[in-house]
From TrEMBL:
Highest taxon in the source lineage: Bacteria
Species per Swiss-Prot/TrEMBL record: Rhodovulum bhavnagarense
Residues annotated as domain ABC transporter: 2-230
Xref: InterPro entries: AAA+_ATPase, ABC_SmlMolc_Importer, ABC_transporter-like_ATP-bd, ABC_transporter-like_CS, P-loop_NTPase
Pfam family, one: ABC_tran
Coiled-coil parts of chain: none
SUPFAM superfamilies: P-loop containing nucleoside triphosphate hydrolases
Protein name per its UniProtKB record: Thiamine transport system ATP-binding protein
Keywords: ATP-binding, Cell inner membrane, Cell membrane, Membrane, Nucleotide-binding, Translocase, Transport
GO MF term list: ATP binding; ATP hydrolysis activity
Length: 230
């Protein structure tokens, strides 16, 4: 269980409150307008910002103040964070060892992760020799390889066209299911939530509203969500 217990996060004059939980293995979409605080919440889970009060726990353990590298999370950002001077395999290998001194079993794991995202045989290419969708797959392979139980996705596929985005969302859902991972996915698009998130939480008015089953929430949106959806 990923739990936000009376969490209050401040960024300058902005304040976000969160008091909810996500069951293991679930995909939760965080939906909300620009500036509502979606990335702020992700940053607090990742350890890039420290809540002013409250606790974030994973499986009952308090992770609120843990250094980012010691948290049970891996993150996928929109810009994919690939290093242009490293090969695809090296970019993925960074998920295992930042110094890239990989054992042969780890090299095999890199190849396996690339195969799992449909990029078998692409390990020797440079990121500049890939399409945007393929670069997203490389970043996803690296996230996958880290084997962390919580995946944080901050609008990772926003720059992709609709067909490719839908393909990537399906891939995320399949990989998360295989790994039993809990996923927090930031999005502006209710269709992303509908595609793969069993639950959705609206981020608005300085708080994360309680998560609801996505279908029911979008079929009969409460006032704050109605305002957002227009
Ligand atoms: N380092 C910072 N210092 C001061 N204010 C900040 C900082 N980072 C974010 N903010 C403010 O916090 C608020 C929430 O920002 P956040 O990036 O979490 O929103 P968001 O919902 O992810 O938006 P978007 O969808 O545009 O990415 C905004 O008002 C933003 O200006």
């Amino acid at each position: 269980m990923l739990r936000f217990d009376g969490v209050e996060i401040r960024q300058g004059s902005f304040c976000l409150r969160a008091d909810f939980e996500v069951a293991p293995g679930r995909i939760l979409a965080l939906l909300g307008a620009s500036g509502a605080g979606k990335s702020t919440l992700i940053d607090a889970v990742a350890g890039f910002v420290t809540p002013r009060s409250g606790r974030i726990t994973w499986q009952g353990q308090d992770i609120t103040l843990r250094p980012p590298a010691d948290r049970p999370v891996s993150i996928l950002f929109q810009d994919n964070n690939l290093f242009p001077h490293l090969s695809v395999a090296q970019n993925v290998g960074l998920g295992l060892r930042p110094d890239l001194r990989l054992s042969s079993a780890q090299h095999d794991a890199v190849a396996g992760a690339l195969a799992r995202v449909g990029l078998a045989g692409f390990g020797g290419r440079m990121p500049g020799q890939l399409s945007g969708g393929q670069r997203s797959r490389v970043a996803l392979a690296r996230t996958l390889l880290r084997g962390r139980p919580v995946m944080l996705l901050d609008e990772p596929f926003a720059a992709l066209g609709p067909a490719l985005k839908s393909e990537m969302l399906d891939l995320v859902a399949a990989l998360a299911k295989d790994a039993g991972a809990t996923v927090l996915m930031v999005t502006h698009d209710p269709e992303d939530a509908r595609a793969i998130a069993s639950e959705t939480a609206l981020v608005a008015d300085g708080r994360v509203h309680p998560p609801h089953p996505t279908g029911a929430l979008l079929a009969d949106p409460p006032e704050a969500l109605r305002r957002y959806l227009g």
